[in-house]
Amino acid sequence: METECPHGHPVAEGVATALPAQAALEEKGDGPERSPINLYNKRHIRRRNTMYLALQRRRRTLIPGLLGSLLLALGGVVHAAEVKPGPVNVTIAGYSSGGQVTVFGEGVVDAVRRAYAGSSIIYEPGNPAGALEHLRNSRRPFALESMIEPRMAYEGRAPFRAAYPEGSITGVLNGAPDVFALKVYARRAFLEEHGIKTFDDLIKKEVPMRVSINQPGNLWAREHVRALLAYYDKTMEDIESWGGRLVPQPTGASNDLMRDGRLDVVITGGATPSGAIVELGSVQDIAFIPLSREHSDYVAKELGVQPGVIPANSYSFQSEELHVPYTSFLIVAGPSASFDDAYKLAKAMYDQMERYRSLHPALAQASRERLADVGALPLHPGAQAFYREVGLIE
User: What is the value of pTM for the model shown?
Assistant: First the structure.
């Protein structure tokens, strides 16, 4: 059951609405013009908005970090009631074309188009590092990222040449909470040949393996490989030193190689169950290489994501639960993202949540309650205003 906030937005049952004082005045028959509180608010908002608009006119002369900080500071200045109606005309810089991640981006596009008629919103395939550079340079207002890449950018770790200024990346919405799980699997014949039962065995025995670590631009996969090995104080160079071979191929191409017996191990991620893994398991005898719970927790903490479990029997060849880190995927904003557009993206997802969840099994874990959960990132002022309005945050 849903109610509405004072601005007409649906609010989930049990969630407090925003602006209760104004609602109470209206229930008593005191129109906004007669309320001394609202007369004061109108003058106060008009004065604050003048300041905000002046800053907006100067934004092209400000460095992204300074502008990001100013926008965060002004998050409460522009009142939600001041958001202008009309379509959303923006581009969301994204991941590579195809694959499960694209489903998240296209789902957000669908929600916005349905919520705001006439919108020209585009999901633009690319790579996560390039997308964040587009944000930093104000070439694009929004990007689809996991929780991992913005953290790397703020820390200035490769491939980012320098740490991003504070406030230059902000969160808009969490469209795929804790849905992307790390998966490590191998040809069963390879595991039996070397007596491998766990990931510990694979590393401590220094097994010479042909292992897919995905493409250099896939920062999600490369960071997981790094963290997996860091637990043992090892690196990818160590794998090569004991006779292993690193295969920089995407998951689809890696599965083809494994199907033909030309690859031993794949390190990748995805929703559960993954159709690609199900298909591979139907033509090649494969098995997951389990991590210890301690190892999984270490990787999750190292990457700033959540530890979890893949339930037993999620795949026909998997009889025991698997401890793995889980990652959320977000829409994030750069300095050029406007208050109105960020507000509308958040509102569109909130209003269209049931349809969004029905578009693909990977989206089924999304919820209104988790939209504002953008991890360590600060919320964009526009998104923050909407979430406050419907009671998702204080």
Answer: 0.79
When pLDDT is cut at 50, 70 and 90, the band that residue 3 belongs to is: very low
User: Residue 365 is part of which domain span?
Assistant: 64-175+328-389
Total tally of structural domains belonging to the chain: 2
Given a contact cutoff of 8 angstroms between Cβ atoms, the answer to whether 7 and 20 are in contact is: no
**Does some domain include residue 187?**
yes
Can you read off the two tokens belonging to residue 261?
């017996």
pLDDT in tens, 167-194: 999 999 999 999 999 999 999 999 999 9
Asked, for residue 85, whether it belongs to a domain, the answer is yes
Q: Which helix (H) or strand (E) holds 112?
A: helix 99-115
What CATH number did the domain enclosing 97 receive? Answer: 3.40.190.10
- Do 323 and 184 share a domain, yes or no? yes
Task: Name the strand (E) or helix (H) holding 303.
Answer: helix 293-303
Domain shared by 156 and 111, yes or no: yes
- Write out pLDDT tens, residues 226-255: 999 999 999 999 999 999 999 999 999 999
Distance CA 219, CA 366 (A): 23
d(CA 64, CA 371): 25
Distance CA 373, CA 121 (A): 23
